[in-house]
Amino acid sequence: MVNIRQVKKFHKILAAVQYTLSRCVTIISSEAVPKSSNHSPTL
Fold it and tell me: Cα separation of 40 and 29, whole Å?
């Protein structure tokens, strides 16, 4: 039997991890875009 309380706790943790991951991705991408645009392509 699966404990419903454990499942709810797991879903809360999973949602928090997903939120943190998406936040990190947006921060990294927003910081990486200006850096790459500063370097003008010489090819």
Answer: 18
Q: How far is it, in rounded angstroms, from Cα 10 to Cα 6?
A: 6
Side-chain-side CA neighbours of residue 14 (13 Å): 6
Note the pLDDT tens digit of each residue in 8-35: 999 999 999 999 999 999 988 888 776 6
- Looking up tokens 């797991």, which residue turns up? 10
| Cα 16 from chain centroid (whole Å) | 10
